[in-house]
Design goal:
Elements lengths: L4 E3 L10 E3 H14 L15 H4 L6 H17 L3 E11 L2 E10 L4 E10 L7
Antiparallel strand pairs: 1-2, 3-4, 4-5
Length: 123
């Protein structure tokens, strides 16, 4: 049974834009990370500063700020609960390994989020 319904035009396949449940939650989280604070009309506090931190050297201070940004985005979404969070550098930027508990079906899944330095994207 589908719990959440939404759509996404990412991926270039326009045969079906409908996405549901975990795929929708993941897409919503990635979208939240991609919106910088102050960019959303009518809600300037919404968004994340994670992309701004990607271009900084990964010192302990920057790592802690990034952890706080990721935790804030995850906490903002009532459909998931953060179980574990690890952040480290990878070849093109910073990678976060996020263990999420999906609240309604009580399932845990690990999501890998790449904050890319080369083109400033999140995947």
């Amino acid at each position: 049974m589908v719990l959440y319904k939404g759509f996404s035009t990412l991926g270039g396949e326009f045969t079906s834009t409908k996405i549901t449940d975990r795929d929708l939650v993941k897409r919503d989280l990635l979208n939240h990370f991609a919106i910088r604070k102050g960019e959303k009309v009518g809600n300037p506090g919404f968004g994340s500063g994670a992309l701004d931190l990607v271009f900084e050297p990964l010192t302990e201070e920057v790592k802690n700020l990034l952890l706080e940004e990721i935790q804030a985005v995850i906490t903002h979404d009532p459909r998931v609960a953060l179980q574990e969070l690890l952040v480290d550098e990878y070849e093109n930027g910073i990678q976060a390994q996020v263990s999420l508990l999906y609240v309604l079906d009580d399932q845990v899944e690990t999501m890998i989020i790449n904050f890319d330095r080369q083109d400033g994207t999140i995947s």
